[in-house]
Amino acid sequence: MTNASSQNAVRVGIAGLGTVGSALARLLLTRSDALTAEGTPALQLTAVSARDASRDRGVDLSAQTFHGDPVALATDESVDVVVELIGGEEGPAKDLVEAALSAGKPVVTANKALLAAHGLALAELAERQGASLLYEAAVAGGIPAIRALRDAVPGQTVSRVSGILNGTCNYILTRMEREGAAFDDVLADAQALGYAEADPTFDVDGFDTAHKLAILTSLAFGTEVEAQDMYIEGIRAITPEDMQAAKELGFRIKLLGVAQATETGIEQRVHPTMLPASSLLAQVNGVLNAVAVDTDLLGEIVLSGPGAGGDATAASVLADLQDVARGAAPKPLRLPRDTLRRYQRARMRTHEGGYYIRLSVVDQPGAFAAIAQQMAKQGISLQSIVQRRQAADDGPVTHQPVIIITHETLEQSVRDAMDAIVADGFVNAAPQIIRIER
Amino acid sequence: MTNASSQNAVRVGIAGLGTVGSALARLLLTRSDALTAEGTPALQLTAVSARDASRDRGVDLSAQTFHGDPVALATDESVDVVVELIGGEEGPAKDLVEAALSAGKPVVTANKALLAAHGLALAELAERQGASLLYEAAVAGGIPAIRALRDAVPGQTVSRVSGILNGTCNYILTRMEREGAAFDDVLADAQALGYAEADPTFDVDGFDTAHKLAILTSLAFGTEVEAQDMYIEGIRAITPEDMQAAKELGFRIKLLGVAQATETGIEQRVHPTMLPASSLLAQVNGVLNAVAVDTDLLGEIVLSGPGAGGDATAASVLADLQDVARGAAPKPLRLPRDTLRRYQRARMRTHEGGYYIRLSVVDQPGAFAAIAQQMAKQGISLQSIVQRRQAADDGPVTHQPVIIITHETLEQSVRDAMDAIVADGFVNAAPQIIRIER
After folding, report:
1. Which candidate in A74, A216, B230, B241 could, as Cys together with A99 as Cys, close a disulfide (CB 3.0–4.6 Å)?
2. B105 catalytic, yes or no?
3. How many CB atoms sit inside 10 A of residue A154's CB?
């Protein structure tokens, strides 16, 4: 049953009543006074959709229309604006968003996978129908990063947008650093605590970060949304040895998503990075996220805060809903769809930067010299090369870790040097390579 | 002479052609393509006002109407929106803003002194006239802090807003820390470099921070703007000894503005603070600023970036102008004027927190014990009390520095204990007290 609607109220339908959806429903039902105090029309929750009507979600939804089929929310006449919190890049989430926009209804979503895959088509549909498509909650949870890029840097040239965009990865890396623990052990614990999914691939292998980066890139550079063929490397390969070396060298290891303008196009990459321990992003620990934007007028601005969590994510959805109630109608991707540029992506092998390289080197004369020589042959300038004595507790030492820090160099040169070093037979494991960011 | 206006263009008048005004004029004249690409009406600079028409500002303003009297901008029929960059809380700036709002024209300003003193009356006037009053550039330069508080936390309860709000102070403190230099020496150098004014009072004594804090407080807590009788302490008294002690104790010293909800009202205070060296705000160095907002749904979000500079400040003005072009019309103080609450300010002596106390103690038996006893008498729980041996290079040692770190305690207790210690005659200088923030 639906409440009689308040005069002029904006009537909200929520599809998906998981952690975020339930939190949002509770906020809409309990905070209407605070929201209408801002002088905007009331937000009134009139309809919901979920797979299971009867599940206890800690909030009384008996006064709302329940739809078993989310797409029915789009055509429900008691719904003015649709909130999509189902998730997934295809299926009911996509069907619902398309149906709502087609009906001319504004959509608020937290679905980064959907936007990364279909953001451009959905933006086009939204523009054509004159309906808003808002998604603050899709990137960096409670941090107002989308609106910062959308509203706060008009007329500026963005040279770089980067961020710690996945709370699960940041939580795991933070604990590995603090406890000296191995990835697998911390992951298992994170799963037990509910900070990581049973199948953690999406998070720890970098795909979630890539989806968010695809959205940020479009907003920052005025390009089409393009998540395909991005360079993506997750955090599974990070070891306690890398954490220890990072600490000694004055770095912290963070999984970053980075989009950066270069001479050959936009670099777009997700990988673990060594960040100076004194940098702002290096202090963003645990499940926190951060987004950094570099522009020609501002230099760098950094926004940090909660990257996930029911309340924080629902809070961002609420801010978007308040924008709808206010009548704000920004273009979905900041610029009109037909002015978004096609994507010119720089190839990863043309990336230039510093590199941390950890090698497991055969303990025999000449190995160290041969390695240094291969680096020199590729024109790689070394900042330091340190052979770390390994304790001989567990039997005879046959290999020694060697840590190399390079000055700024070309990724292709590093790859070629590593291929040659491996071919020389002086290492007994694949080189560990972590890019250094400022 | 005025250009023929583009169709539908929003015509901008700038009053005040200092660093920010000149930068803004240049941006408006050179970036119109990037701005109109966003699908909003063009921003067209039609008129300017300054004291001296002939001064070279590195930008050709011969096509713009020049007004010797800034108030004339308000009634210039070729001006749709007025940018006030004159500064000062009374006089021409105030006259111009009042005249423009009275004429129903939107105003964009970077003038924190004006807003701190007259923000409430101006907001009332703006609302009555249906004209926007926007001021992103007035607080924390290029950081989108005002719009974050205004747009991104609807329906939330803010418990605390704080920030590093003055670039001059942060620059001086950063250099004192890095160089071990004295305040006066760094100030003189900052003046020579143009980072500090010839009369630095406004910055280094905390008044500028207080003005900005007054604005943030109103937005965060839904209260009237009130800058009178705030607790304000500047950075002149910070010594190299404090910097050294901070470093050893794992702190950094920053001038913070803090507004915080307490049981007895809103604490509103500007003073040097000891911040944990690992905190985000502690990494905000040099002329950078930062704003931190704590809410019930988000926990803490932090925004950092450039606090001043012509381009960065002009960029924030430009974002506000783009909002005007888009037709955005937020309430000046987020909530409607008539719903803003009167100010219930907590008294500083009821502040609770940790304290760093540095005493210059007479080198005689019993002094140390007497001090500890006075602290105990006030119920102050000590985290540490360390007598630092002073080098005897400069003759006989008659006094020794003692550094005390307290657990959370009441400000009044600290004051009473200090009074008693001074009365006991065991110290030869006023105690140095620096509050510890998390």
Report:
1. A74
2. no
3. 23
- For A297, what's the count of Cα atoms within 13 Å in the CB-facing half-sphere? 25
Residue B319 and residue A37: Cβ atoms within 8 Å? no
Are A306 and B301 an interchain contact pair (Cβ–Cβ within 8 Å)? yes
Q: Is B222 on the interface with A (CB under 8 A)?
A: yes
Nearest CA in chain A to B142: A298
**Which one-letter DSSP state was computed for residue B252?**
E
Enumerate residues 20 to 59 of chain A having a beta carbon within 8 A of any beta carbon in chain B: 27, 31, 34-35, 37-39
Residue in A280, A334, A339 closest to B280 by CB: A280
Q: A19-77 pLDDT, tens per residue? A: 999 999 999 999 988 888 888 899 999 999 999 888 889 999 999 999 999 999 999 99
Q: Measured between CB atoms, which of A283, A296, A312 is closest to B280?
A: A283
* Pairs of CB atoms within 8 A across A/B: 161
Across the interface, whether the CB atoms of A304 and B222 are under 8 A apart is answered no
| Sign of the alpha-carbon dihedral angle for A424, A428, A430, A434 | negative
Look-up: residue for tokens 């713009």?
A: B64
Cα–Cα distance, A105 to A10 (Å, whole number) = 11
pLDDT digits (tens, 9 = 90+) for A276-329: 999 999 999 999 999 999 999 999 999 999 998 999 999 999 999 999 999 988
What does the alpha-carbon distance between residue B214 and residue A164 come to, in Å, rounded to a whole number? 32
In this prediction, residues B71-86 reach a mean pLDDT of: 97
Q: How far, CA to CA in Å, does B198 sit from each of A287, B189, B201, B237, B284?
A: 45, 11, 9, 19, 25
* Whether A164 contacts A302, CB under 8 Å: no
Please report the sign of the dihedral spanned by the C-alpha atoms of residue B36, residue B42, residue B47, residue B51: negative
3-class DSSP state for residue A303?
Answer: strand
Measured in angstroms, the CA of B304 and the nearest CA of chain A are apart by: 5
CB atoms within 10 A of CB A103: 14
Secondary structure E strands in B143-185: 158-164
Which amino acid makes up residue A188?
Answer: A
The candidate with the shortest Cα–Cα distance to A207, out of A291, A113, A333, is A113
pLDDT tens profile B177-225: 999 999 999 999 999 998 999 999 999 999 999 999 999 999 999 999 9
- Read off the amino acid at residue A140: A
| SS3 at position A96 | helix
